[in-house]
What does this fold into?
Amino acid sequence: MIEHTTAGKMSLAELADGHKCQPSAILRLTAEHSPGAAYPANVAAYINGVFRGTIATTDHMPAGLRLYLP
It folds into this structure.
């Protein structure tokens, strides 16, 4: 597992494809390894935006999200 901080240059799907995993694996590892086993506020805001439809799944993630990848 590695820690990754986004640079605002790719979507979650693109990041997952580059690491040969599923976006759900990144989200699961991020929740499990974040302090308090909860998403950081900026990661939660991104996820909520995707599910509310205010952020397209193909949009680049904002810079500064700390994610955990397999």
Q: What stands out?
A: The two ends are 4 Å apart (CA to CA).
